[in-house]
């Protein structure tokens, strides 16, 4: 700690004590330069408006952090002579305290991630958090990490399942159906059927022990009293043996079939066979088969047979697949094993002690129930749990005293571990609730986020358009001398700040275009059901971007859509059309395209160029989009949760785009998270009738989560109609259905 | 009551105890000490205001209560001599600074000590050194005392690990205290070296060979010895 450096003078002074005993003469002290101690000055650190002042020395205590090194000079503001940081001032307080006191504290009310970010920004390693706060910090960090991991895992699971859906073979599909009944109708049906049969089986077990007296004549005396009790009240099971047997057989058939199916579908059979649920399954059906095997003539064996029937009650545990609460309970008990163990152990101890004392106290009473210590166990248990059946009661005074103490201590011993178990259960249960709620809300949240992003993107675009129109006006209207703007005052300042930014942005994108020799516009190619290529050689451009005033390069928020599949094909400079694609390319495409749901891919796989391709063949999980083509050929987009779906039809239009990582997290596997649609008008605008609208379609389907939820943005497809003038405009209607499989 | 009156008449405020609240908590009340004004200290020690400010700021940073106890002292020394065993030497120095012998050093003691060591005359410095060596304060340095000091200084060095067989809990554990024969031999060697060193010094200091070194002998020897005198004169602790 560098503040200790301030003690160095004392230590050096004390070093004079070595002088007389030194063997060799001590070296002379270093000449202190006659400098005006620049250390002794104060620095002002301005963090988002809050000024902190400190000695330079204080900051330089830790030279490997931002503030202690010359990295802070980057933030030095010459005019105000202070260091300005645009960060959170509340957290900065703690960071500065670290310099002052040498201990970094973690404020419990702050969000962990934001705190971490601040630490990372200022170059402080979280390990220096003081002991007082370290535990808390670690705990929260772990919780966060777990939560994020859970989310990510489940997302990944969903995604993987989505992404490779078609690739799965039956086996995996079955497994998924088993694990998650909401994936398909069949799975749901299966789920309910098994649930029903479990219930039936359990009920049958229960009912078959009920004594049935139906059908046996009850002899009545003259005054209506029962003459003789029906001595033949046998349990229903005996009476309707056949029926129950059939029922049992049916249930066991179903269970066996289910078990075998699960075994077949399991990815890892050995692991599956070792899992708890499968053991329960086995235990549930085995007694039946064993019972079949054993004949009931032999008395001994029939005793065993009867015992086996007891195991049938384990079928009720099969319900835990159906009920999450049960699973949580089981998990809680498992995680509280030590508390439970403690409970059992302490109870056992107490039981033995009290039983012994009780026995010796009551030994000499005549006709006592306390015949042995084990016999007294029963009394002790009943008393400690405050049941008090009363079948065994002490008669001596000593016995009664002991009995009293026993019941009091029983209350205590049992009450101690219970809150621990309860709180564990509560914590796990709430975690689960939260996880479920988060998942459920996630989609809605994502949709909202996308909406927000889209609106900001739309704002961006409108600004862009405004800039372009301004530029256009400037170029065309004013000529070179822009000073005497005809427009008026504001014409003077053509290039406002944001305009400059826009200009530069545009320019950048333009450079990119030129550099990659790709256009971000789709031009005259008629859309006849074939996907338009996004890439085109520069030669066939008919309109130049921007300044043409018609539409513009749209790349909202910098997401320029390049076909993800482009990687598979080597620089396809020719438009992508099915007939041009070789088989090999097609295969390559299928291999690489994770979604294979996009409209572009559809023709590839279907090899059809039919215009009326209704994407019925589209794989499930496509959200619904209605594209209605109007007669004028303008394809109007209306999409669900396509926010700000611009619909301007006549003018240059629309872009709606979905910013890349709108979230559905899918981002990961490249599967085309972006979409940009663009539509371009030809210069020869107007002429609505024969409007040459070119539609563009690109679509990207973002894989939606398999749960048939429709949220997902994504997907849409559009295609504008429009061929060239001569041909009637094809209005295309494409409706992609979401089929919730 | 009378005690309070007596206290208030004293110029220098000594240890002030916290309010009764702390007493009820059962904690030992942390004595807080406020030094006298900076001007008085300036006059007494000859340091400038700026120097005193600097020293006090760092002092207060380390010891917010205003006093240093031996544990803190030891900890500070460990920072300067991380490789050795600082406790015996720190103990010696602490004792030397602790003028009132009450186990705590306050700021004034420190500053006075440092001022006499850095700005004082050679006899002053030697006087301080004499108190450093004289552990029991009886005015003479015995052979044992000198040996202790020499050993303490030796222990400060990285070889000090070999010498010390006991480790203070809050010290760095000496990595090289093994029980192997080689380590033992080495340790023995170092000890003998230190002892011989001590004996040599004692012989030099003890002019009349009576087994102890008095102040006058000490003063005489040290002023006569050229190197010692020069080094003493040169060691000015520049702040």
Question: Could you explain the architecture of this structure?
Answer:
The complex is a heterodimer of chains A (741) and B (239). By secondary structure, chain A is mainly α. In chain A, 45% of the residues lie in helices and 5% in strands. Chain B is mainly α and 239 residues long. Chain B has 13 helices and four strands. In chain B, helix 6 packs across helix 9. The radius of gyration of chain B is 21 Å and the shape is globular. About 13% of the residues of chain B have low confidence. The interface between A and B is large, with 29 and 49 residues.
Summarize the structure.
The complex is a heterodimer of chains A (741) and B (239). Chain A is mainly alpha-helical.
List the helices and strands and how they pair.
The complex is a heterodimer of chains A (741) and B (239).
Chain A lengths: L7 H7 L27 E6 L2 E6 H4 L16 E2 L4 E4 L3 H13 L10 H10 L9 H33 L6 H10 L5 H23 L3 E2 L21 E2 H4 L1 H25 L3 H6 L1 H18 L5 H13 L12 H12 L1 H26 L10 H12 L12 H19 L2 H61 L10 H4 L4 H20 L66 H10 L8 H6 L18 E5 L5 E5 L17 E2 L16 E2 L57 E3 L5
Parallel strand pairs in A: 1-4
Antiparallel strand pairs in A: 1-2, 3-4, 5-6, 7-8, 7-11, 9-10
Chain B lengths: L1 H8 L10 H6 L12 H8 L3 H14 L4 E3 H11 L6 H11 L6 E3 H13 L2 H12 L6 E3 H14 L3 H4 L17 H25 L6 E3 H10 L1 H9 L5
Antiparallel strand pairs in B: 1-2, 3-4
The amount of beta strand of chain B, in percent, is 5-15%
Quaternary structure annotation: heterodimer
- Cα(first) to Cα(last) distance of chain A is 64 Å
What global shape of chain B is seen? globular
- Average pLDDT figure of chain A: 68
Q: What percent of residues of chain A are in strands? A: 5-15%
Largest interface: A-B, 29 and 49 residues
The end-to-end distance of chain B, rounded to whole angstroms, is: 44 Å
Q: What spatial order of strands do you see in the largest sheet of chain B?
A: 1-2
Q: How many distinct beta strands of chain B? A: 4
Helix content of chain B: 55-70%
């Amino acid at each position: 700690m560098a503040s200790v450096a301030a003690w160095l003078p004392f230590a050096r002074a004390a070093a004079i004590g070595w002088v007389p005993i030194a063997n060799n003469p001590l070296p002379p002290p270093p000449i202190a330069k006659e400098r005006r101690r620049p250390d002794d000055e104060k620095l002002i650190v301005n963090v988002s408006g809050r000024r902190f002042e400190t000695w330079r020395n204080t900051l330089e205590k830790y030279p490997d952090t931002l503030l202690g090194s010359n990295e802070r000079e980057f933030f030095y503001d010459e005019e105000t002579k202070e260091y300005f940081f645009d960060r959170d001032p509340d957290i900065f307080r703690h960071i500065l305290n670290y310099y002052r006191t040498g201990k970094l504290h973690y404020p419990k009310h702050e969000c962990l991630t934001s705190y971490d970010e601040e630490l990372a920004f200022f170059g402080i390693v979280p390990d220096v958090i003081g002991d007082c706060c370290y535990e808390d910090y670690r705990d929260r960090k772990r919780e966060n990490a777990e939560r994020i991991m859970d989310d990510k895992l489940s997302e990944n699971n969903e995604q993987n399942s989505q992404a490779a859906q078609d690739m799965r073979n039956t086996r995996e599909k079955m497994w998924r159906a088993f694990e998650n009944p909401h994936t398909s109708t069949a799975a749901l049906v299966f789920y309910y059927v098994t649930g029903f049969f479990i219930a039936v089986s359990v009920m049958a077990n229960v009912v078959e022990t009920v004594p049935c007296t139906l059908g046996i004549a009850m002899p009545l005396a003259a005054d209506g009293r029962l003459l003789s009790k029906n001595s033949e009240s046998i349990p229903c099971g005996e009476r309707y043996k056949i029926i129950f047997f059939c029922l049992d057989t049916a249930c066991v058939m179903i269970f066996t079939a289910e078990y075998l199916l699960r075994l077949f579908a399991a990815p890892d059979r050995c692991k599956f066979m070792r899992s708890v649920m499968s053991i329960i399954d086995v235990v549930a059906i085995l007694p039946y088969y064993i019972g079949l095997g054993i004949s009931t003539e032999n008395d001994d064996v029939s005793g065993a047979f009867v015992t086996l029937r007891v195991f049938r009650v384990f079928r009720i545990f099969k319900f835990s697949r159906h009920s999450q609460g049960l699973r949580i309970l089981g998990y809680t008990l498992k995680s509280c094993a030590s508390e439970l163990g403690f409970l059992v152990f302490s109870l056992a101890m107490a039981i033995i002690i009290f039983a012994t004392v009780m026995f010796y106290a009551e030994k000499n009473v005549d006709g006592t129930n306390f015949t042995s210590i084990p016999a007294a166990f029963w009394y002790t248990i009943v008393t400690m749990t405050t049941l008090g059946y009363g079948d065994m009661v002490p008669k001596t005074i000593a016995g009664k005293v002991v009995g009293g103490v026993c019941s009091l201590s029983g209350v205590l011993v049992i009450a101690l571990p219970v809150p621990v178990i309860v709180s564990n259960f509560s914590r796990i249960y709430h975690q689960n609730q939260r996880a479920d709620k988060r998942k459920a809300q996630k989609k809605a949240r994502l949709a909202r986020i996308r909406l927000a992003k889209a609106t900001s993107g739309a704002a961006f675009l409108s600004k862009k358009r405004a800039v372009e129109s301004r530029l256009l006006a400037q170029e065309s209207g004013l000529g070179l001398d822009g000073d005497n703007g005809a427009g008026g005052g504001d014409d003077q300042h053509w290039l406002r700040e944001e305009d400059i930014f826009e200009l530069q942005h545009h320019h950048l994108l333009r450079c990119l275009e030129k550099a990659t020799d790709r256009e971000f516009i789709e031009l005259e190619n008629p859309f006849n059901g074939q996907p338009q290529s996004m890439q085109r050689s520069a030669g066939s451009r008919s309109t130049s971007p921007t300044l043409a005033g018609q539409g513009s390069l749209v790349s909202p928020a910098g997401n320029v859509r390049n076909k993800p599949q482009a990687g598979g094909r080597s620089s396809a400079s020719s438009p992508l059309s099915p007939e041009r694609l070789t088989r090999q390319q097609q295969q390559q495409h299928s291999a690489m395209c994770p979604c294979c749901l996009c409209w572009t891919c559809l023709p590839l796989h279907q090899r059809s160029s039919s215009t009326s391709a209704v994407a019925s063949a589209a794989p499930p999980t496509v959200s619904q989009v209605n594209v209605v083509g109007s007669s004028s050929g303008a394809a109007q987009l209306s999409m669900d949760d396509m926010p700000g779906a611009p619909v301007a039809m006549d003018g240059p239009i629309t872009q709606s785009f979905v910013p890349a990582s709108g979230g559905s997290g899918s981002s990961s596997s490249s599967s085309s998270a972006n979409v940009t649609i663009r539509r371009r008008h030809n210069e020869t605008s107007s002429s609505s009738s024969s409007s040459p609208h070119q539609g563009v379609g690109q679509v990207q389907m973002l894989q939606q989560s398999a749960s048939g939820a429709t949220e997902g943005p994504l997907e849409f497809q559009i295609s504008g109609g429009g061929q060239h003038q001569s041909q009637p405009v094809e209005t295309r209607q494409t409706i992609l259905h979401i089929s919730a499989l | 009551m009378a005690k309070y009156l007596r206290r208030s008449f004293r110029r220098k405020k000594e240890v002030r105890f916290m309010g009764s609240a702390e007493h009820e908590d059962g904690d030992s009340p942390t004595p807080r000490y406020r030094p006298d004004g900076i001007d008085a200290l300036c006059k007494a020690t000859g340091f400038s205001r700026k120097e005193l400010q600097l020293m006090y700021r760092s002092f207060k940073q380390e010891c917010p209560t205003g006093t240093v106890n031996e544990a803190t002292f030891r900890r500070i020394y460990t920072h300067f001599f991380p490789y050795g065993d600082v406790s015996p030497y720190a103990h010696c120095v602490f004792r030397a600074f602790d003028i009132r012998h009450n186990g705590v050093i306050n700021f004034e003691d420190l500053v006075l000590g440092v001022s006499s060591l850095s700005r004082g005359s050679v006899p002053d410095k030697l006087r301080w050194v004499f108190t450093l060596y004289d552990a029991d304060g009886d005015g003479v340095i015995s052979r044992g005392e000198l040996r202790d000091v020499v050993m303490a200084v030796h222990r400060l060095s990285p070889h000090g690990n070999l010498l010390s067989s006991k480790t203070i809990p809050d010290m760095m554990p000496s990595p090289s205290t093994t029980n192997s024969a080689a380590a033992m031999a080495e340790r023995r060697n170092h000890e003998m070296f230190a002892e011989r060193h001590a004996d040599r010094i004692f012989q030099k200091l003890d002019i009349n060979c009576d087994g102890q070194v008095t102040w006058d002998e000490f003063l005489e020897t040290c002023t006569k010895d050229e190197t010692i005198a020069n080094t003493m004169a040169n060691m000015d602790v520049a702040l």
